[in-house]
Amino acid sequence: MARKKKLVVLTGAGISAESGISTFRDSNGLWENHSIDEVATPQGWQKNPGLVLEFYNQRRAQLAEVVPNQGHTILKDFEKYFDVTIITQNVDNLHERAGSNDIIHLHGELTKARSSVSASMVYEIGTKPIKLGDKCKKGSQLRPHIVWFGESVPMIEIASEMTAMADILIIVGTSMQVYPAAGLIDCVGKNVPIYIIDPNKPNVSLRSNMTFIEEMGSVGLKQLFDKLTKK
């Protein structure tokens, strides 16, 4: 039996937006009326942990109200034909809920909490809130298991290794402006086909092996699925 080709997919906020999840920032540079500095930096956490916890508690509550969309389910369907690894910048669990099996979360996971003194002490919390006074086993306040701006991205090395193994790379729903995730495109072999799906063409260096599909994630993925799985 022939080896399945390695399909690596980098997903961003655009794919989850179709499920009703707000993208990271709107045109005013805000996220749900909060500045990034207030809710997505270690400094914001130190300044006002209550605000940060409430912000992510609201995101978690929103997550309980939404479901995976067709884009997520198509990525699951790709597994019938390819060895699929999804590298996501999203902190939601919609890829998991759609049934995808190999997912790397670059920026953390909303459904987990972790110790504020030990990044290795991680707890599954689902969509429950984290409150001031909720502590880890070491007695320190729990914080969202989110990689904030200014923090290292622990999974980027594994993501880079996976991307370097790709026979095909799909990029969907990301502006390719947030690093180090945006740099993953440079890890693929020079002859590896790259498909970029987004209504707005991201600002990336053009290559001969690059194809743009200027559609929403679900529409573009359906077109690409039909193309790549034709016998």
Automatic annotation (TrEMBL):
<dbReference type="InterPro" id="IPR027546">
    <property type="entry name" value="Sirtuin_class_III"/>
</dbReference>
<protein>
    <recommendedName>
        <fullName>protein acetyllysine N-acetyltransferase</fullName>
        <ecNumber>2.3.1.286</ecNumber>
    </recommendedName>
</protein>
<dbReference type="InterPro" id="IPR003000">
    <property type="entry name" value="Sirtuin"/>
</dbReference>
<keyword id="KW-0808">Transferase</keyword>
<dbReference type="InterPro" id="IPR026590">
    <property type="entry name" value="Ssirtuin_cat_dom"/>
</dbReference>
<dbReference type="InterPro" id="IPR026591">
    <property type="entry name" value="Sirtuin_cat_small_dom_sf"/>
</dbReference>
<feature type="domain" description="Deacetylase sirtuin-type">
    <location>
        <begin position="1"/>
        <end position="231"/>
    </location>
</feature>
<dbReference type="InterPro" id="IPR029035">
    <property type="entry name" value="DHS-like_NAD/FAD-binding_dom"/>
</dbReference>
<dbReference type="Pfam" id="PF02146">
    <property type="entry name" value="SIR2"/>
</dbReference>
<dbReference type="InterPro" id="IPR050134">
    <property type="entry name" value="NAD-dep_sirtuin_deacylases"/>
</dbReference>
<keyword id="KW-0520">NAD</keyword>
